[in-house]
Amino acid sequence: MMNKETMLSEHFSLAELCKTNTRIENVPSEAQVENLRRVCRWLERLRRRWNDLYGDGDDPIIINSGFRSSEVNKAVGGVPTSNHLTGCAVDIRCIGMEQALRYAAILLDISDLSREDYDELLIEQRRSVVWIHFAVRPSGNRRRTSLTPLL
C-alpha cells in the first residue's frame, strides 16, 4: 500500500501528483500510479534540461494537477475523457508564456531525441495564469500539440 510520501521519481511524490483542493478523496490504483511514474520520467528530464539551460541549478517543476479521480475531475470541470483520470497527464505551472514555450520546446526535444511519443502537449491559459497540459499514455500516443493557448 502506497502512502502520500511515496516517491514516484527523484523529485516527484505521489502526494504532489494527487493533490486537490476539492476535499474529495483522490487515490489512484496501482495501474494509475504506474502511469504517473511514466509521466514523472518525462518530468525529470524536463527538470534536468531546464536547469542545465535556464534555471538556477535546482529549480523545481511545479505540478498544478496530476491524477484526478472521476469525482475530482467532475468537480474541477475536467472533460470526461481526460488523461488525468488514468494518471497519464499533468498540468505544469509556468511563470508566463515565455517559460511555457521553453518547457514545450524542451519536451518536444525530449520526444525527438528519445523517439518516444507523448499524447498531448498543450499550452493553456486562463486570464494571466499559464500552464502546460502534458500527457503520456502507455500506448497509442497521438502527439497532439497546441502551442497557442485558448483564452
Give a topology summary.
Blueprint lengths: L13 H5 L11 H24 L9 E3 L4 H6 L13 E6 L1 H19 L5 E7 L2 E7 L8 E3 L5
Helix pairs in contact: 2-4
How would you describe the overall organization of this protein?
- Helix content is 36%, strand content 17%.
- It is α+β, with helices and mostly antiparallel strands.
- It has a five-stranded mixed sheet with strand order 1-2-4-3-5.
- Helix 2 packs across helix 4.
- The radius of gyration is 15 Å and the shape is globular.
- The mean pLDDT is 94.
Our measurement of the CA-to-CA distance between the termini, rounded to an integer number of angstroms, reads: 41 Å
Q: Indicate the radius of gyration in whole angstroms.
A: 15 Å
Count of helical stretches: 4
Strand numbers in spatial order across the main sheet: 1-2-4-3-5
In the predicted model, the low-confidence regions spanning at least 5 consecutive residues are: none
Count of distinct strands:
5
Strand and helix order: HHEHEHEEE
Structural class: alpha+beta
